[in-house]
Design brief:
The chain is α/β, with parallel strands linked by helices. The protein folds into 2 domains: 12-19 and 266-393, Aspartate Aminotransferase, domain 1 (Alpha-Beta Complex), CATH 3.90.1150; 23-264, Type I PLP-dependent aspartate aminotransferase-like (Major domain) (Aspartate Aminotransferase, domain 2), CATH 3.40.640. The protein contains 13 helices and 14 strands. It has helices spanning 23-28, 39-56, 69-80, 94-105, 123-132, 154-161, 212-220, 230-237, 248-264, 266-287, 312-323, 349-365, 374-393, and strands at residues 12-13, 61-66, 86-91, 109-114, 138-142, 144-145, 150-151, 167-171, 190-194, 205-210, 301-305, 325-326, 328-329, 338-342. The chain has a 7-stranded mixed sheet with strand order 2-10-9-8-5-3-4, sandwiched between helices. Strand 13 and strand 14 (338-342) form a beta hairpin. Helix 11 crosses helix 12 (349-365). The model has no long low-confidence stretch (mean pLDDT 96). Bound molecules: pyridoxal-5'-phosphate.
Length: 394
């Protein structure tokens, strides 16, 4: 609950998932008194699958699961591998560690290629590991590691993995809508998304784009699976149905949001996040704040180090109590050390100007020497420059 304040405070969700909801999708979700085994729903579901394919820019099969993003991660492990299969996980943060835990939970023989938090595993390291371990059946990575704000070079990695027998399985849950992903061209065998990130609807749906190479490996894979059986899901999807009762309200919202993304163009949604991320980095420089992942910064979220000697939870709490804004702390070992500003999905420049103004006021109150207005001005400068460039390009 918000503490009493003499002024209005709107509640604002400013985290890298769940992200702010698209107003039209919110309205669409209220029509959820539909049954999923009707022609009406089948028509909708087929349209959603087709739009999702188009928005992801892929010819691969696209499936929807009723689960958070981790459900699709689990499905990719359970469907593609057999006990003791050797796999490589490229891990550079909390979500990379999730791949490690998940693959081990299913009895895979996991070789971990790790980079320090805030950094990224290099394509060269992956190429060397694959050359030394030719029996590897799969390579797992995060396109965007939301816990640190860094990204992996999935394009270069995909080109390496595609020359081997291994599947390249990409958690793009915060990569979709924040970076270009050429699923077929780069050899991405499974690409995973989640509804509560750039798709601007609540948590509860996960997406997978699945290549023919992955379908072929599934034919001989022996790990147990039931709820997340992708072959069963594919068979049902072809008829406009899901294997089990789907989250119908979310599908209704997704149908609407996909139409909006198609109208706008996926490349514009990506450019929007990239502009906001760049503006945030400039604002941090102007305020003397240090980025946590300066070498491979992504556009989903910017992780910023708390000023020396300060717990980042103090900043997070000030955002909430003073302004009603929910921003993200660090996760795991980065808790208290960083705070994260999100850019993916339904965020615009005005949201960012507001976030930076809040940050400046908070830092001043906390006694951090900042020049109030400098961060907002730096972000405005990026916005003005990029909109002028975009106008010239038309
Ligand atoms: C949000 C997220 C996930 C999935 O988390 P869920 O809580 O299961 O939705 C996985 N990977 C990354 C990189 C994420 O940002």
């Amino acid at each position: 609950m918000l503490k009493f304040s003499m002024y209005l405070r709107k509640q604002r969700l400013l985290t890298p998932g769940p992200t702010p909801l698209h107003p039209r999708a919110l309205q669409a979700m209220m029509g959820a008194d539909v049954h999923h085994r009707t022609d009406e729903f089948r028509t909708l579901y087929l349209a959603v699958l087709a739009d999702l394919k188009e928005v992801l820019g892929t010819t691969h099969d696209v499936l929807i699961l009723t689960a958070s993003g981790t459900g699709a991660m689990e499905a990719s492990v359970a469907n593609c591998f057999s006990p003791n299969d050797r796999v490589i996980v490229c891990s550079a943060g909390k979500f990379g560690e999730r791949w490690v835990e998940l693959a081990r939970a299913f009895g895979l023989d996991v070789l971990v290629l790790s980079a320090p938090y805030g950094d990224a595993v290099t394509p060269a390291a992956l190429a060397a590991a694959l050359a030394a371990n030719p029996e590897v059946k799969g390579v797992f990575v995060q396109a965007s590691e939301s816990s640190t704000g860094s990204i992996h070079n999935v394009r270069a990695m995909g080109e390496i993995v595609r020359r081997t027998g291994a599947l390249f399985i990409v958690d793009a849950i915060t990569g979709i809508g924040t970076m270009p992903l050429d699923i077929h061209g780069w050899g991405l065998d499974i690409v995973i998304g989640g509804s509560q990130k750039a798709f601007m609807i609540p948590p509860g749906l996960a997406f997978l784009a699945v290549s023919n190479k992955a379908w072929t490996q599934m034919e001989t894979a022996r790990l147990p699976r039931y709820y997340f059986d992708l072959r069963r899901e594919r068979k049902n999807a072809a008829k406009g149905e899901s294997a089990w009762t789907p989250a119908t309200s979310l599908i209704l919202g997704l149908a609407d949001v996909l139409r909006s993304i198609k109208t706008m163009g996926m490349e514009k949604l990506i450019a929007n996040a990239q502009m906001l991320a760049e503006a945030t980095r400039h604002a941090c420089a102007a305020l003397g704040l240090e980025l946590f992942a300066p070498s491979h910064p992504g556009a989903a979220v910017t992780a910023i180090k708390a000023p020396r000697g300060m717990d980042s939870a103090v900043i997070v709490n000030e955002f909430r109590e003073r302004f009603g804004s929910v921003i993200a702390n660090g996760q795991g070992e980065m808790k208290g050390k960083i705070f994260r500003i999100a850019h993916l999905g339904y965020f615009d420049a005005v949201d960012l100007f507001g976030v930076l103004a809040q940050l400046e006021i908070i830092l001043e109150i906390l006694g951090v020497p900042v020049q109030r207005g400098a961060g907002v001005a730096a972000a405005e400068q990026v916005f003005i420059r990029q909109t002028a460039e975009a106008a010239l390009a038309v």
